Amino acid sequence: MPKKVTKKKVVTSAGGKSSGGDSKSLFKKSPRNFRIGGDIQPKRNLTRFVKWPKYVRIQRQKRILFMRLKSPPVLNQFSQTIEKSQASRLLKLLGKYSPEHRADKKKRLQSEAESKNKNAAGHVGPKPNHLKYGLNHITNLVEEGKAKLVCIAHDVDPLEMMAFLPALCRKKEVPFCFVKGKARLGKLCHMKTATCVALTDVAKEDLKDFDDLKRAFMTQFNENTSLRRTWGGGIMGIKNQHMMAKREKLREIEMAKKANM
User: Fold this and answer.
1) For residues 178 and 107, what is the distance between their CA atoms, to the nearest angstrom?
2) Residue 200: CB partners within 8 Å, gap ≥ 6?
């Protein structure tokens, strides 16, 4: 007698048909719809889709424009700033000679005036040694040969107003350097920003650090002739670079064909 074949019942989802691999599934597959009013979008970086404020867009466009445009060596040298280790040493040294606050200055002058009144021949101490700041003041100090070290901010706007100062420092053999951020120099002078600062003298305990920095900056900036010859900018986008490479390749092929003819 032939054996009886029993058929197994297949449970399908409500309103669904049993077909292929999905026949044994209890739940029907429903693909997600990410269109408007559909499912919640997966987490991703939405920076590209943000409408940034106008001032942010202008800042970014300006930065890209400066990358594209070619800048002469006189302006390009401002982008050659000192390294992070040098900057930390320099700012640490300059921080010791920050100008006194208004209240401290008033207190000092008051005590000096009182000592004068008490004694006609009262000795008034020498003026404290502080950082000098301000473009006109530093220009005069460099011309008179009083400035021993000049630090120039790399992001002065407009940059042309500072273009003469590096040349003047080279002529007068005053060591100078370019520091990232006018706000960092401003902080030393208790101001928002400062275009440049200068040291006229330092204490005996800081002489070693001061001399090391002077020698390094003389080699790096004053005596470095490549700074005065290297043009900056001219950096094109990735699309433009690929296009120019393709053009160059086609030109080489044509030149090779002409040579074989």
Assistant:
1) 35
2) 129, 132, 141, 146, 147, 148
- Tell the residue number behind the tokens 């901010």, with chain if given: 153
Write the CA distances from 138 to 143, 148, 168, 180, 232, integer angstroms.
Answer: 9, 11, 11, 19, 27
Sheet architecture: strand order including 132-133? 132-133, 196-199, 149-153, 176-179
Q: How does pLDDT run across 151-209, given as a tens digit for each residue?
A: 999 999 888 999 999 999 999 999 999 999 999 999 999 999 999 999 999 988 989 99
pLDDT in tens, 194-249: 999 999 999 889 899 999 999 999 999 999 988 888 898 889 999 999 999 999 99
The terminus-to-terminus CA distance of the chain in angstroms comes to 91
Phi, psi at residue 197, to the nearest 5°? -135, 160
Domains defined for the chain, CATH in brackets: 72-102+126-226 (3.30.1330.30)
Secondary structure of 52-82 in the HEC alphabet?
Answer: CCHHHHHHHHHHHHHHHCCECHHHHHHHCCC
- The angle formed by the CA atoms of residues 60, 63 and 69, to the nearest 5 degrees, is 135
**pTM (predicted TM-score):** 0.71
Contact status, residue 196 vs residue 185, Cβ threshold 8 Å: yes
Angle between helices 164-171 and 135-144 (to 10 degrees): 20
Secondary structure, 3-state, 152-181: EECCCCCHHHHCHHHHHHHHCCCCEEEECC
C-alpha 179/C-alpha 189 separation (Å) is 15
Half-sphere exposure of 54 (CA within 13 A, CB side): 0
Indicate if the pLDDT at residue 123 is higher than 70: no
